[in-house]
Write a structure and sequence with these properties.
With 238 residues, this protein is of the alpha/beta class. Helix content is 28%, strand content 16%. Strands 1, 2, 3, 4, 5, 6, 7 and 8 form an eight-stranded mixed sheet that branches.
Length: 238
């Protein structure tokens, strides 16, 4: 499998990252990516960029040799209605939008509340990826979630960072196994994201690939090696 894309990365702009955009780009070129996504946290995360940051993407060059930079956001799901922390006008200017739940932004609810928050976020026309649906602090009904992702044509993320031994998320490995098995049942593809907060993690998915191998997940349902599918995740013409 030749990995060509990593759409979930952060820089120092998110307030708790450790690398610059230049360092991330250099790392992406080094590992041979064709698409690198800049997905800083939305403004509801403390220390993160303001809306002005996302409105100024026009100043960033998008092509670096064979590498295409995509400028997006990891927007925060703010309530059980699936509302996000960026205005519609800004969401529409993003190359793509990841929607995720973080404990700093939305209190974990019941399985039903968390599932409906995720589904309603996926129903936002700008949301293309649901970030790290693998945290036991936010229990989910994976059957309902996967069916909704298929209906909305939103990619479910297999987050490599969730498998880190020191991850704040809970139950990552068990939940990812359940997610993958459910996706395989319904023929729903997944998108691996490094969720890198330092350049050395950009384009690296070793832990995620180990779980994929464990559950014998179909390779045809993994999107990271299929550059022809990039149009599924972006709101722009490439």
């Amino acid at each position: 499998m030749k990995i060509c894309m990593d759409l979930h990365t952060h820089t120092v702009a998110s307030g708790h990252g450790y690398s610059t955009l230049k360092e991330n780009i250099e790392a992406a070129v080094e590992v041979g990516l064709l698409f690198l996504g800049l997905s800083e946290h939305g403004p509801a995360i403390s220390g993160g960029p303001s809306p002005l940051f996302f409105g100024n993407y026009k100043c960033i060059p998008r092509q670096y040799g064979a590498l295409r930079l995509l400028c997006g956001v990891e927007a925060n799901i703010m309530d059980y209605e699936g509302r996000l922390d960026l205005a519609e006008g800004l969401l529409g200017k993003m190359d793509y939008v990841i929607a995720s739940m973080h404990v700093r932004c939305v209190t974990p609810g019941s399985r039903r509340e968390n599932t409906m928050a995720s589904i309603r976020a996926m129903q936002n026309p700008y949301v293309k990826i649901l970030g790290h649906p693998d945290d036991s602090r936010y229990p989910l009904d994976y059957e309902e979630l996967v069916r909704a992702a298929k209906a909305e044509q939103v990619a479910l993320e297999l987050n490599n960072s969730s498998l880190h031994p020191q991850s704040a998320r809970q139950g990552g490995r068990e939940n990812i196994r359940t997610l993958l098995n459910t996706c395989a049942k319904y023929g729903v593809p997944v998108l691996m994201g490094s969720d890198s907060h330092i350049c050395y993690a950009v384009g690296h998915f070793e832990a995620a690939l180990d779980v994929i191998k464990e559950v014998n997940f179909p390779e045809e349902l993994i999107l990271n090696d299929k550059p022809e599918r990039i149009g599924q995740f972006v709101n722009i013409d490439l």
